[in-house]
Amino acid sequence: MDYANRKRPPQRKPAKGKRGSQKQTERQVPWGIVTLAVVLVIALVAGLRFIAGGNPDVVPPTSSESHLPTPTNNQVEAIPEKPEERWQYIEELENLEVEVDVPERELGPPKLMQCGSFRSKSDAERLRAAIALQGLEANVYRSNGGSWYRVVLGPYETKRAAEKDRHKLQRARIHGCQIWNWNL
Questions:
Q1: In this structure, are residues 134 and 169 in contact, taking their beta carbons and an 8 Å threshold?
Q2: CA angle 151, 155, 159 (to 5 degrees)
Q3: For a FRET experiment, which of 41, 142, 169, 177 has its CA 20 to 30 Å from that of 133?
Q4: What is the pLDDT of residue 66?
C-alpha cells in the first residue's frame, strides 16, 4: 500500500443540533492540579527559608547597634607561648641506623637460550644471521645424531641477562626463544 499518496478518509460531520459535541472538544483547565502545584511551591519556599535559618522579617543588628562591651587595653590577653613538644621520636629516628641482612644471591646453573630447532642447516643459519643483525651472537649445534640443528645463545650467568636478550629479539620480531638451565 502506498502511504505517501493515499487519500485522507472522509471526515464525519457532527450531527446538527447537538451542542454537547462542541463542548467536549474544548479543553478544560484542571483547577485541582493547578491549586496543588501552587501549594507545593509555597511549601517549598517556606521550607527553604526555614532551613536558611530564621525569620526573614527580623533584620540582624549592625555593629553600631551591638550591645556587647568592647575590650579595653587592660582586658586584652596576651597570646600564650608555644608549648614544648613532648614527642622525642623525631630526634631518635634521625640518629638511628638500620641494619639489614641481605643474603647473597645464589647463582644457579648457567642459562642457555634456544631460539629454534630445524631439520635443515640452512634454516638454522638463516635464523642465526637474523640474530646477528641484532648484535647478538648465536651458535648452531647438531643434536639427535645430526638430524636436528639448534640455534642457541649463551651461556648467561643470570636469567635476567637472558631475559634482556630475549626482549631485544622479540622487538625484532624473533619469537619463540626459550631459556633453559642447560650445560653444553
A1: yes
A2: 105
A3: 142
A4: 53
